[in-house]
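Example record

The entry below shows one chain as it appears in the dataset: sequence first, then structure tokens.
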Amino acid sequence: MKLERFLCLLAILPSFICAQDHFAGSDSLLLNDEDLSAPKTIVDRINASEPGKGSVRVIQDALIAERIGRPDLLATASSSHTASVSYIEMAGWRIQVFVGNNQRLSKNEAFKNEEDIKLTFPEMSTYVTYTAPFWRLRVGDFRTYDEARQSLRKLRTEFPDLGREMSIVKERILVKQD
């Protein structure tokens, strides 16, 4: 009985070896001589073109390339890259447009309201947040209460259905650094 199992395993072993050689490709963890010239990072591997497969191009900020441990990629970063805008966080005001705790509906409603506001007021920043069990939509980064009040009037004029829910809340805001 043991001899039969051993002979059976010996008979099957060559087929496993052939299958392993057949399926060992770019997705294999086996190292071939070809793998030594393979791209060094995941982004390089994604950007590499392979016959018979689609193409993907990952465009990343130079800081991301630095973060993943490849500072040599900084030299190849796009020259059309503009300097990143820096923000400071400070005490300020936002307009709370929507708050809901219905798990099935509130998330969709918050994102729908955000989309509507973005279409009407593209210059206003919007923030959809979830703090269990509430979904909130807050709008704007206002330094003064008066700025927030003026924008609240505009929002109530454009969105009368949401007008009763809207209120001004004190919150940490992001302001472009001059």
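Notes for this example: The first helix runs from residue 2 to 23. The chain has five helices and four strands.
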